Amino acid sequence: MPASAQHRRSRNSRLARKLAVLGTGAAVLALPVIGATTASAAPSSTVTAASLGYSNTLDGWIRASLQVMAQNGIPGTYDGIYRNVIRESSGNPYAINNWDSNAAAGTPSKGLLQVIDPTFAAYHVAGTSFDPYDPVANITAACKYAAAVYGSIDNVYGAY
Predict the structure, then answer these.
(1) What's the pTM value of the predicted model, to 2 decimals?
(2) Is the pLDDT confidence value at 49 over 70?
(3) Theoretical Cys-Cys bridge with 146: which of 63, 92, 135, 153, CB 3.0 to 4.6 Å?
(4) N-to-C CA span, the chain
């Protein structure tokens, strides 16, 4: 078709088309933001000893952790966890080590199994709290770390 026979768009129709494309693009870009706002209002379902039917005690925390560990393929036994908890924190979920080399470097060990924040973040188990002082989250993250490094928390008999 010769150039003289081609349909010429008016300046207004080109402007309208550009605005429509821009509007659609803005709407598409806004969708994740709208979805995130709506999703963030939903209640969280963080696993705790109580939510799994266990008592809020050392025994309950270990049993709840073992259940989460089994669901995530993390090895370990009650006795292995208990032995290490008693050595590391005497069963105090709020224990913090402010005197070793980790503390001197600005990352003190925390919780039942004395995990530093970078290790806790790297080995965090989905569905548990992001708080390193949370007993179930602390135990499961520490056991996941011990499994990666030592094969299981059961193989840990000293500081790790």
Answers:
(1) 0.73
(2) yes
(3) 153
(4) 79
DSSP 25-73: HHHHHHHHHHHHHHHHTSPP----TGGGT--SSHHHHHHHHHHHHHHTT
Residue 109 DSSP SS3: strand
Q: In this predicted model, what pLDDT tens digit does every residue of 76-125 receive, in sequence order?
A: 999 999 999 999 999 999 999 999 999 999 999 999 999 999 999 999 99
Distance CA 154, CA 114 (A): 16
Helix axes 58-71, 135-150, angle to 10 degrees: 50
C-alpha 62, offset from chain centre? 19
Phi-psi region of 108 (alpha: psi -120 to 50; beta: other; left: phi over 0): beta
The backbone torsions φ and ψ at residue 122, rounded to the nearest 5 degrees and listed phi first, read -70, -30
